[in-house]
């Protein structure tokens, strides 16, 4: 700042930090803060910083296809230096194995958390156990899932006897319910 900052407490809050465009550990970031002085007054200041750490990330060792759950043999952990507050990359295998890529991830690429979704508990074409509850009545039968779904999501199911479609909520692996 061309002005001289008043004496006071220097504050740099996390929300004032701009993430770098790259994960290069040598990248400088701009951090906006302030000097707290007087009767709770703020004098704006800006700093440039390099904030780095050595951590792990998950890297694809094979191309990861959209919609197919990631297997343990398709990924590995590697240690690298990065911007310390970058939480985009997956840091351990549990965050990746069994999850489904939303887009193709090339071999050698860092796997980002935002590229993954939960594997569906029910996949299109699966035979599912249907539980219907209406008042005191309780009915159990099998149906065929017409759409994919994760727990809590409403999907389309075909009644195998009547051939009619109906909506049901996924309640677990291979299970749906109608209320």
List keywords for this structure.
3-stranded antiparallel beta sheet; 5-stranded mixed barrel; mainly beta; 179 residues; 44% strand; elongated; 12 strands; 0% helix
Helix content: under 10%
Radius of gyration: 25 Å
Distance between the termini: 63 Å
Strand content: 35-45%
Average pLDDT across residues?
91
SSE order, as H and E?
Answer: EEEEEEEEEEEE
Number of helices: 0
Low-pLDDT regions: none
Major sheet strand order? 8-9-10-11-12
The major beta sheet can be summarized as:
5 strands, mixed, barrel
Tell me the structural class.
Answer: mainly beta
Molecular shape: elongated
What is the count of β-strands? Answer: 12
Structure in a nutshell:
0% of the residues lie in helices and 44% in strands.
Describe this structure in words.
This protein has 179 residues and is an all-beta fold. Helices cover 0% and strands 44% of the residues. The protein contains no helices and 12 strands. The chain has a 5-stranded mixed beta barrel. Strands 1-2-3 form a 3-stranded antiparallel beta sheet, with no helix packed on it. Strands 4-5 form a two-stranded antiparallel ribbon. A hairpin with a 3-residue loop joins strand 2 and strand 3 (41-49). The chain is elongated and about 80 Å long. The termini are far apart. 16% of the residues are buried.
